Amino acid sequence: MRTRLIIALFLAIIMAPAAAQAAPPTWSPPSNLVTGLNQVWQHQEQTYNNGNLYAFRNYGWDQIMANRGYVNYCVRWDSTASVTVAQRDAIHASLARQHKKWMDELAGHNAWPYSDVPVRVVGWAVRNRAQLQWTDTSVAVYVNDIRENAPQCSVPCGRFFNQNGQYPNCPGGYARHYDQSLWLTDGFGGGAGGDWGQRMGREYFMNNINAANMTILLHEIGHTWGLDDFYDWTPTGVGGFLMKAGSAPGITEFDAWMLRDWWRHLKSRYGY
Q1: Are the C-beta atoms of 78 and 150 separated by less than 8 Å?
Q2: Do residue 132 and residue 152 come from a single domain?
Q3: CA distance 100 to 232
Q4: How far apart are CA 195 and CA 1, in angstroms?
Q5: Which domain covers residue 234, as residue numbers?
Q6: Residue 22 lies inside a defined structural domain of this protein
Q7: PANTHER family per the record (predicted)?
């Protein structure tokens, strides 16, 4: 019996999920990545916002700082499918897990102030209320409010539409505002992402809802934080990485340092 107990304890230890590796405390990228990182930052400065990257004030960084450490989401259910309570909760949990993968690359790094950045889903947008198979009021529900030929949450509640961070006409007030949308569309191929949130196929998301790395979502979240695409060039000395679509399934060391480079350049605007 004692031998079995020891074996069981050993198996529990080796099979437990690995804790996220702590981010380096200072700006100290590996020497083989320095040239590529410098090239990426220079390219972003030259091409973003008509050459004025720093004037834009709705990066994911701005949203988190305005909220003091969390992000609110609306789910745009651009689909004819119904959603059960279990599916709703699984969508929320999957989104939070994937978002955390990026945030873990910042925790403890270079005065980043948050060890955790919770994801809160505060609303669902749908064409027909009957598609949502729950009656609780844990999230606001917006019915048949159509924009871009898809359901959306209330404009007065969206940061994309209210970038001063004030929501005087939002039902539910600041607590029900949303910073980003998770836009899930029937039959949509690939993905899109920006300060407004992330979009991908509803089928892709649901089929990968328990995946360790939901590659398209991770890539599009990267765009929300300012990371670029690399369709027509590759930084010197770098192989596959998440933001070069199709070349890596998850966040690589280079992706993590690109994210930290954004914080290095923007943190002074928040007093760090």
Answers
A1: yes
A2: yes
A3: 29
A4: 57
A5: 28-56+227-267
A6: no
A7: CELLULOSE-BINDING FAMILY II PROTEIN (PTHR35606:SF4)
Residue found by looking up tokens 């509640």 in the block: 157
Both tokens assigned to 109: 């790094």
Regarding whether 242 and 163 lie in a shared domain, the answer is no
Q: Which whole-number Å values give the CA distances from 182 to 64, 74, 93, 249, in the listed order?
A: 16, 6, 13, 20
Query: Hey, what are 33's tokens?
Result: 């990545």
**What residue has token string 């609780």?**
136
In the chain, the amino acid numbered 211 is A
Q: And the tokens for 269?
A: 């605007």
Q: 51 and 67 in one domain? A: no
Chunked mean pLDDT (size 10), the chain, 272 residues: 37 38 92 98 97 97 98 98 98 98 98 98 98 96 97 97 95 95 98 98 98 98 98 95 98 98 98 97
pLDDT at site 2? 38
Q: Domain tally for the chain? A: 2
Residues 72 and 197 in one domain: yes
Amino acid at 269: R
What pLDDT was estimated at residue 9? 33
